Amino acid sequence: MNLSHYILGQWTPQPGDGIPQYDAVTGEVICTSSSEGLDFAAIADYGRHVGGPALRRMSFQERGRMLKALALYLTDIKEKYYLLSYRTGATRSDSWIDIDGGIGTLFAYASLRRKLPDTPWYVDGEQAKLSREGTFIGHHLMTPKHGVAIHINAFNFPIWGMLEKLAVNLLAGVPAIVKPSELTSFLAEAMVRDIIASGILPEGALQLVCGMGIGILDPVGPQDVVTFTGSAETGRMLKTHPAIIEHAVPFNMEADSLNAAVLGADAVPGTPEFDLFIKEVRREMTVKAGQKCTAIRRAIVPAHLMDAVQEALHHALVQTTIGNPRTEGVRMGALVNRAQADEVKRRVELLSQHSPVVVGNLVEFEVIGADRRKGAFLPPIVLRNDAPFQYRDSHEVEAFGPVCTLMPYLTIEEAVALANMGKGSLVSSIATYDTRTAREYVFGSAAHHGRILILNRDSAKESTGHGSPMPLLVHGGPGRAGGGEEMGGLRGIKHYLQRTAIQGHPTIITAISGVYQQGAQQTEATVHPFSKYFEELEIGETLTTAKHTVTEADIVNFANLSGDHFYAHTDVTALEGTPFTQRVAHGYWVLSKAAGLFVQAKKGPVLLNYGLEECRFTKPVYPGMTIGVRLTVKEKVAQEKRNGEDFRKGIVKWLVDVYDETGETVAIATILTMVRMR
Questions:
Q1: CATH of region 4-255+491-498, choose from 3.30.360.10, 3.90.1150.10, 3.40.630.30, 3.40.605.10
Q2: Which residues are catalytic?
Q3: pLDDT under 70 in the chain at which residues?
Q4: What are the backbone angles phi and psi of residue 140, rounded to the nearest 5°?
Q5: CA dist list (Å): 75 to 103, 368, 544
Q6: Which of 117, 439, 506, 652 could cross-link to 520 by cystine, CB 3.0-4.6 Å?
């Protein structure tokens, strides 16, 4: 069977013969893939001119709901992907990381819509005041790029690797061209077929290219983004593509790295941390048969514990059953194909010149439910490098399979030095219950690693482990790991957005951004804004309240009510050497009184107070001063109707400006209310 591409709005069979993709267990050919003859310029233009405008017309809220709908749709049919995933050599639990992990990332990014506005763009950071009188300000606007995201993915996670990137670029409003690995694209193609059939994504938002993809980067331009996951060598080659250099195309690279796990000196045998370390190394060696870019390649342990760790790893790994992932009891499947298994063997032979194999045997091992001669099976292999500062192969050569090298250290400084000798990694971890050890390791090695896991008994129950990138945290690392960042929550979408500084009068910046800027023209409310429905409220609409003259009784009563008897509010004899000249009103009394001034008591469209986003007290308020409030509609974010609700609503952000009799602001805050829609 030849795989097809989804390009230019239709499924297109590949021409002629292609690269074979093999069943990792039986060695049988599953399909072939080829990208020869594809017009990559036309494919890129289709994404830019069809998918891009469709996505940019959608707000972040709409794009987030689109991701949620897609995640729900794929969840309902995910079992079909598990059946196919067995053919990559993955066990059921391996496939859970790939399939459910990928769908889970869609859910995670769908939820991030709640932190974004109901517009296709958003305002980033705080207003910059550029003039004395406030008539000239600056801000940063984040808008979707007008290009395409080209994702070149690795073979080990054909679904997660695709979805964890798509979730981000689709939420940002940028279409994608996905080029999965030519070794396992049969699984990615199966899911893309379902995604396209669902009709959830607008046309042009997703295109799929199977095969080698030679020439896919030739048409990239200044509005495009390229991401790559795979070997550091291939990544460096792609990063220097002439078109990428000429057009300064953002290139996000996530490469395989020599990740390290460190055993703290306090984590001796018998402690929970020792057991957790052994469990984590074993898991990272055997999950996906060690074919993970985050797998532990170097286990760095106190010199006096080398033998104990070696023995414990041997005991843990010999219990690992290897074989057909469909067979009951099998805990580790096969590598992706025989060629990859042969490459791992070659790397082990290279490493073993200075680091002998102490656990496992590449020649003699048992396979359950399959023919070892046909499948791509290898056993877990532990090597031992007793002189890691002298023999540096362990820090330079990676065997991308179930292989790890054990090495000793004498001090925490040596452990840091060894971990950093990997020249940059995606993740490092340390198992310790000693706070000082953890602190010294983190600050000594953080610059060399994209993520650091501190594993101990307190976090073990809920820890996702050394090798699990999380959607809300960055996935990437410096140096050998590629220097890129993926996911990372809202940070990730900024890779697909252009940050533009906009300057002008607050009124025009308000009109452009959809967010009220201090100093902008205000429209005085003719009726109380709390009596208006969500759709009726306009940005800049302002209620100017009645005023209140502050008394000492106000301060005393609030102190008694709240229990806040801080000396500045209650003891006028203690004010010497403070910023205050007399008894000062509580900041929270000022805010509470402001609410009393602007709130409309009778029932209306406002459903509840949703929270306080920011608040500053800028000037002391003393008895005898008179305060008033300007309540301004700052921003509006629509929300979808949830199951069981009989109404639609949105979140309204209000700028609360509390000022005194001189007109000077004494407190300023942003509050949120939930407001019913019609």
A1: 3.40.605.10
A2: 254, 293
A3: 644-645
A4: -115, 130
A5: 7, 31, 51
A6: 506
